[in-house]
Amino acid sequence: MPVGLFRVCLLVITAIVNHPLFFPKENGTVPENTEEIIQKMKEREESLRLEQLRLEREIADQEATQKALEKAAVVVEESKEEKVRWDMWTALSMVIFLLIELWRQDFQEGNWQDIGGEEDDMAVLGKAFKGVAFPNKAVLASFYEKRILGTTGDMARMREMVEGFADDLLEALRSVCNRDADMEVEDCMGVGSMYENWRVRKPFVCDLIVPFAPPEPYCFRCQTWCSGDAFPPDEQGYGTIKVCRADEDATGCICDKTKLGEDMLCLLHSQVSSTRPSSEMEDLLCFKNTQYLDADQVMKWFQIAVTKAWNRISHKYEFDLSFSLLDSPGALKIKFKSGKSIAFNLTPVVQYENSDVYFISHFPRSSLAADIPSSTHWFLTFAVYERRFIQLVSKTLPANACHVSCLQILSFLHGKQCSLTGPSGLTNYHLKTVLLHLLQARPSQDWAPEKLEARLQDMLKFLEKCLHEKKLYHFFIGNGKVPAELGFPIIFQRAEPLNLFRPFVLRRDIYRKMVDTFHEMLRNMSALINEYTVHIPLAHTNGIRKEPL
After folding, report:
1. Which of 187, 209, 177 is nearest to 344 (CA)?
2. Taking the model in full, what pTM does it have?
3. In this structure, which topology does domain 122-248+280-534 adopt according to CATH?
4. Tens digit of pLDDT for each residue in 359-388?
């Protein structure tokens, strides 16, 4: 009890001592100090907030910088990896390029023409031959005897007649020309299927080429695509012919390429000889304002000269002579009073140096030079060497060899198919090129007459392979295995092989038409041959079955 009273008293005394009324002066400024403190606290809070914002921006900037550095490091690392990969691809590409170059050199030396061991490739090919029954030996022999031999017997007499008349016409042409100003015309030469004895389609047309040369003191300087000058890919196989004075340097004097000034003269060329009027060059059948021979001008001159020559000798003959085709300036036709006619082509050409390669102004009835870049570009023809090669190889083949028969049959089938479905990009020159390759690749004994069926199959399969790959190489250009007996110019042997199917790579419509024509020819082959084949007794065909290719 006393303890409780003591606690109560202590509490009361404490409350009285701490009452605010006992301290009036100290507690009188409390409200003013509180406002100042609050104001300072707000200012401090604002400064701390601004400081926080500044620190946050700095941290954000540091983080952004760090991320940028990390990203840059990643990019550098990726670029290093990409560079390593690129270096690897570059090295790999160089290795592949070197391998291709090594293969190309072997290819250029003639390995690309070694098809003698292609039986495996031939077996893989033949997709177009599935379901096609190939005529047997008896049917082919009967067809060849009736259709081919029966229509080619009078070719020799026709060749003799045309050559004799052409010689007389050219002699008259020389007499009407001005020997001091006009071109000098040489003797004509027969080329093509009529002179290689494989033409089968009528009408028979003789192809004659006539070399010509400029009058003195001029000469022709020929440049080809493989002579070192830069020619675009679409101009391969062409060349240009420059008309120069015989004493003029082929490269030309430096005075023609440099402005010497009015008071300076060239010590090698006088003003008279260096200045050549454009009319003089046009008289030499050059393209306007150039020294390059113009094929169109040459053909116009040749037509006029032939017309004058015929007017001089026409009284000697009992027939008429006329130009038969407008798009072939050298196409001539002899018309007899009986109504019969004989057609032949007389085409002017320019000899390449001292060889039998010639620059030809145009190809009669052919699409080989359908897209000539300009009239100053002349296509090169190797027809004389082609004829000599066939003659040279024929001497090593068995008697009555089947090489000409194969080409005749294939040419007949192709001509018949074109008469049904229209012309295509495939020509008889392509077929002859296939034969030339096989003649070089196959041994002599493979061309025995009893192997006609097998060799004809080889030609068709080889042609199918070329159509599939869009590659048929010119036989002479780039072929290092041309027999030395021919005397073929080495510059063309060392040139890049010329793909005769190159124009069809970009012209897909013509290529498709060519392939379709070939397939149609295969499907119609038996029908076309049987149409011209006499009935063969069954006893003659026993033991002979029709082998599908």
Report:
1. 209
2. 0.71
3. Beta Polymerase; domain 2 (3.30.460)
4. 998 776 554 444 666 889 899 999 999 999
